[in-house]
Amino acid sequence: MRIGKYIIILLLTFACPVLSIGQLGNSSDLLQKISTLKQKSAYLTDTNYVIAVNQLAFLYADSYPDSALNLLQGQAERCIKSGDLLGATETYKIMGNAWQTKGNFEKSLEYYNRAFELAAKNDLQTAIPAILNNIGLVRINQGNYPEALKVLYQTLTAAKVVNDKYVSGSALNNIATVDFYLGKMNEADSAYKGSLQIALEMNDTIRIINAYNNIGEVNMEQDKSTDALGNFEKAYRIAQLKNSPEMLALITNNLANTYFRKDNYMQAITQYENALRISKQNDYGLEATKSLIGLANVQYKQGKLKDALANGLQGINRAQQMGQTQLLRDANKIVSAIYEKSGDGMDALKHFKMFMFFSDSLNNLATVRAAANEKANYRIKQKELEFEKSSIQQRWLMFSALAALLSLGIILFIIAHNKRRLKINNIDLQHKNEIINTQKRKVEETLSTLKSTQAQLIQSEKMASLGVLTSGIAHEIQNPLNFVNNFSELSNELMDEMKEELGKGNYEDAQEIANDVKQNLEKINHHGKRADAIVKGMLQHSRTGIGAKEPTDINALCNEFLKLSYNGFLAKNHTVNQVTAISTNTDFDNSIGKLNVIPQEIGRVLLNLFNNAFFAVNEKLKTREENYSPSVSIKTIKNFNKIQIKITDNGCGIPEKIIGKIFQPFFTTKLTGEGTGLGLSLSYDIIKAHEGDLEVESREGDGSVFIISLPFT
What we know:
alpha+beta, 5-stranded mixed beta sheet, 7 strands
C-alpha cells in the first residue's frame, strides 16, 4: 500500500529569489508591517505592500491555504496594472502553492502556468526555476512521471543559468521521488540521504523533516519497518516543534501505513484518524484522501466491510475531484476487494477494471508517449507516400501492394508481440502466485507460533495469580490453626491437672478445670469451623472452568481478596515490618447487597488489582521517602443502576506517556520475570464480559485509582 508520498516535497519548492527563507520573518511582524503600509493612500500599488502580502501568503500557503488565497485575491491584477510584473508572477505562483496544498492539481497547474507565461514573456529569469519545479511536482502528484521528469530537467537547466542552488537541490529531490515511484529504491535512498546531509548543514528545518520522512518511506518499501518508524518519529518530533500541521498530517499517515504493514491495526486506525482530523481541520484534500483509503484498508482486514466501503468510496470521490491517479488506483483497488468479499461481483469487477486502468496509466505512460511519436512519424511517411504516388502514377499498384504488405506485417507483428507479452505476463503471474503462497505459509507459521506463545504467557499469568492466591490462603488459615493448636495443648495440660485434683479428692477444683477444658473445646470447634469455611470459599474461587453468574456479596468478596492479596504480599516480602507496614482500609456501601456476577472471575480481577497496588507501594517504599505511609484502600459505591469498586494506592503511580497502554496485552512496566503483561488485559476483558468498565486515574509519584463499574441488575 504505497499512498504516503504525494506532498513530501511540496514545501521544498516554494522558495524563490524574491521570497527567500531569510527574508520572510514571522506572520505577526508581517501583519504589523501590512497594517502600517495600509495607512498610505496608494498602498495597493506600493511595491513594499505587495512584497509583504506575498510573504505572508507564502507563510500561509502550506498550512492555511484558504487564508493565503483570500489574502491574494485581486493582487496579481493590481500588480499587472501598476507594472509590477515580478510581484504578479510571485502572486500566481503562491496561489498555485495554496491550491496544491488543498489537493486541487488542475487549479494549481492553472496558476503555475500563468506565472510561467508571465515570467517567460517578460524575461523574468530568476522566477522561472521555482515555477518549473512546482509544475514538475504537480505532474508527479498526477502520476505523469515522463512529463514530470521533462519539466524537472528543464528546472535544473534554468536554475543553473541563474545559479539558484536551493531550487536545484529541490529539483534533484523531486527527481529522486520519481525514482521512488518507479521502484528504484537504492537510487532514491542515496539521494534522500544526501538531501538530509545538505539540509543539516544548512540548518533547514523543513528540508530536514522531509528528508527523514522520505528516507522512512524508502525503508517502508524495503520492508525495514523498524528503521521506517524511527525516521518517521524523528520527522514527527521536529514537525511538532515547527508546528507544521501539513507535515504532521503527512507523517501521521506514514506512521499509520507502517503500523498497518506490521499488522498493528489499532495503532494504524488511531494514526489514520489523527491524520484525517488534522487534514479536515486545515482542508488538506490529498492527506485526507490518503487517510480515508488507509482506514478502508485496515477496516477491510478487520472484517468491518460496511465502514471500509464507506471510507473507500469517499476516497474515490475525493481522488476524482483532485484528478489524483495514484489515489484513484489505490482507492479502486480496496473498494473492489471489499465488494468481492461482500459477494457483490458486479461492483467488484467494475472497480477492479478501474484499478487496472489507473495502474496501467501509471506504469505505461512512457510507452504511450513513445507510441504517439511513432504514430506521428507514421503519418508523415504516409503523406510522403501520397505525394510520391501522385507524381509517379505508374508505381501506384506497387506502392499499394507494399502498403498492404506493410499493414499485414504490422498486424502480424502486433499479434506476435501481444502473444509474447501475454506469455510473459502469465509467467510473471505464476511467479507472483508462488511468492504469495510462500509468504502465506510463512504468515501461517508465524501466527501458529504467536498463538502458542500467547497461550504460554496466559498460563504463566494464571500460575502467578494462583501462587499469590495460595500464599494468601496459607496466611489466612494460619490464624485459626494457631488457635486450634494452642487451645489443644492448653486443654491437654488442663486434663493432667484435673486428673491430679481428682486423685487428691479436690472435686470443686476439678470441676473448674473441666469447665475451662469445655470452653477451650468450644474455641477449638469455632476456629476449626472458621478454617473449614476459608478452605471451602477459596476452593470455590480458585476452581477452573466457565463459571455461572450467581448472587454474590460484593463487599464480602472485596474484603476476602484484600486479605488474601495482603497475606500473599507479606509472604513474598519478608522485609516489611511494623514500622513500614502497609495500612489497608475499607469503606463499603452496605446498601449494595448481592450482585449477579461470576465470583471466581471478579475475584481474579480484584486479586490482580490488589497485587498491583501492593507492588506499587512497595516500590515507593524502596525509595525510603521521608514521612511516607503506604496504604491500599477499597471503597464500594452504589450509584443508580450501577455499582463502583474503587481500589486506591499511594504508590509510585503510572507515567502519563504509558497510561493509555496498560490494558494492552503483553504490555508491562515490571522487570523481566515479574510480569507477563496479561494481568490488566485479562482483567479488562473479564469486566467487559460482565458488561462493565475498568478505568484508571493516576499521577506519577502520587498513586493510582482503579475503578470497576458493574451494572446493578
